[in-house]
Amino acid sequence: MYAWHFTEMPYPNLPPLDTLSTMRVSIPSKLFDPKIGADLYNRYLDEHMLADDLGLNMLLNEHHQTATCINTCAPLSAAVLARQTSKGRICILGNPIANRGDPIRIAEEMAMIDCISRGRLDVGFVRGVPYEVFAANSNPTQTVERLWEGIDLVSKAWTSTEGPFNFEGKYTHKRAINLWPRPYQTPHPAIWITGSSDLENIKRAASRGFVFATFLQPHEKVKWMFEGYRSAYQDTGLPGGGGTAYMPLVFTADSDAEAERGARELCWYLDAKAEPQFRNPPGYVPVEFNVQALKGAFTGRTDAMRKQSLEFLKDQGVIIYGKPDDVAQQIKRLYNLVGGFDHLLMMQQAGHLDHKSTARSMTLFAKEVYPQVKDLPRTRPLGAVAAE
Amino acid sequence: MSFERAGSVVNVHGVDIEVDIRGSGAPILILPSEEAWEADLPFIDELAKTRKVVIAYPPGFGRSARPDWVTHPDDHAYVMLDLVERLDLRDAALVGFSLGGWIAAEMATKDDSRFSKLILVDAFGVKLGGPTDVDIQDVWVQHPAKVAALKWADPEKGVRDFSSWPDAALTIVARNMESFARFCWEPYMHNPKLRHRLHRIGVPTHVIWGEKDGVVTPAYGKAYAGLISGATFETIAGAGHFPQVEQPAAFARALSAALA
């Protein structure tokens, strides 16, 4: 099992949350102090460098116009880490290709980072969460199509090495695509994709050999998704094999009291507020979901989780915390409940959790937990061995 | 259509279009708003006593198909013009509400030969100001309560209690909302080319506007009308973006006067 350190790089130094109507999209930037921001950026990058020293991999993402994540340009932080670290893998999860508009620019950025890091890059692509469509002004009814057209184009650009080709798709038109540099890894870096409920999307990812990642979901739903991923290989007869990844909140501590304190700090992430219009822009979810929404029955994943107790979230595998042996035991339990997985993506920092606590938790995980779970077998899609 | 009673389907060059035809006489083609209030309002049946009323749902709305190639109200206009030919409507009054008004204006700039009149009600479709001017209030980025206050003189009038609606009707509501965004997200609620084409409209045009419309204000409506040669403009008191819903009697009087 591969272990990854993650933080959304939050800016938690806000007025009391009950005085804000939203932390996303429309929160005024006068609330961002650039001097605090400078400290935070450097601190979060330092923590990724610590992860590298400790033998963990580094996971990055990006969001826009939000205090919950100031890593607005994940390729920039990935480029910094490509140069400043030397061992761990770096994964951007992911590039919001439906929102960025120019897949070729993303292909170039990833190829360059892959070269600088000497082949340590994994490249994720995401559709983008609902509120991102406002910052990007992407049509919420088209982002799924843009995602897949963009991935296909990036893959072709990475692997076309004999000179220019043209592309006239639904959303992107290019006349002489000819990538310099091409990626360090051949044929290209591993591709990751995220999802939460769209089984077709999951099967599509499996059939193309992409890693499938999902975040902060109850273990029964994670199992449902991972089984869909695994069975897709057999169903399609296509070369699956990327693997599965799951992200809980993770806090490892020297005492139970300290573990619970850290876990509560991490829950800041679940409490992030957004005005209702940002949570479900028209056409982002299928019509059937919006029929339920009109009846008041669909309020979104985060809302459902927010209302739950710490114990409940722990039982569901959404948050893992405790002393090192407890954390290892919870990871093994989760691993068994969902039928195994390949990548443990750990949100080990969120909200006000300070550097000292974060570094201690990361260190305890790396030294005392990771050895206990590292050798859990990778779960490959069914039949992958036969295909090889 | 009303939400529960399907109209008939007309295939227009491969695109299934839902039409609701009532009465007989001089034809009126009605293009509903994105919220599709119109078919259930009394003024329709009143008109149908003396005229042939054709309520037509553009691609993506009501029970009409939504082919991939239709991406913008400019495309809707061509499909609706094809429908007019298919139904062989002549000397028809063309009445459009909100997005339907935008589509009606697009149609009239392309070919107004089958129309006797054009009536636009709180229509979207043009941008009049510069890049940072908000000509059309954003109904997607603002809080729903604020949007309701912009849309309605009395927001209570806009409340639909969906809890008792059957799924089939709610599916149409949800799909209408999705299609509205699909076609009008960017450029937001307008076609940059339309204002430069409005001079082509040759039929008598009347523009009706809710006096309290905060999404597209009466000033916007008046300026829009000013781009159409000879167009007249009036407001309905005590009404927002949907005067046909908020002030049905006053609206019906204004409409029949315009049709006379």
Summarize the topology.
The complex is a heterodimer of chains A (388) and B (260).
Chain A (H helix, E strand, L loop, with lengths): L1 E6 L26 H21 L2 E4 L13 H11 L5 E6 L1 H4 L2 H14 L4 E5 L6 H5 L6 H17 L5 E4 L4 E5 L13 E4 L4 H9 L3 E5 L3 H18 L6 E5 L1 E4 L3 H11 L9 H4 L7 H8 L6 H6 L3 H6 L3 E4 L1 H14 L5 E7 L5 H19 L10 H4 L1
Chain B lengths: L7 E5 L2 E8 L3 E6 L10 H7 L2 E6 L16 H14 L5 E6 L1 H12 L4 E7 L22 H8 L15 H18 L20 E6 L7 H9 L5 E5 L6 H4 L1 H12 L1
Helix pairs in contact in B: 2-3
Overview of this structure, please?
The complex is a heterodimer of chains A (388) and B (260). Residues 382-388 of chain A have low confidence and may be disordered. An eight-stranded parallel beta barrel of chain A has the order 1-2-3-4-7-8-9-12, surrounded by six helices. Chain A has one domain (2-387): Luciferase-like domain (TIM Barrel). The radius of gyration of chain A is 20 Å and the shape is globular. Chain A has 16 helices and twelve strands. Chain A has 388 residues and is of the alpha/beta class. Chain B is an alpha/beta fold and 260 residues long. Chain B has a single domain (8-259), classed as Rossmann fold (3-Layer(aba) Sandwich). Chain B has eight helices and eight strands; from the N terminus they run E-E-E-H-E-H-E-H-E-H-H-E-H-E-H-H. Chain B has an eight-stranded mixed sheet, with helices on both faces. In chain B, strand 7 (205-210), helix 6 and strand 8 (232-236) form a beta-alpha-beta unit. In chain B, helix 2 crosses helix 3. Chain B is globular, with a radius of gyration of 17 Å. Classes of the chains: A alpha/beta (388), B alpha/beta (260). At the A-B interface, helix 11 of A face helix 5 of B.
CATH class of chain A: Alpha Beta
Regions of chain A with pLDDT < 50 over 5+ consecutive residues?
382-388
Sketch the major β-sheet of chain B.
8 strands, mixed
The fold-level CATH name of chain B is Rossmann fold
Question: What oligomeric state is this?
Answer: heterodimer
Cα-based radius of gyration of chain A, to the nearest Å: 20 Å
Overall tally of domains of chain A: 1
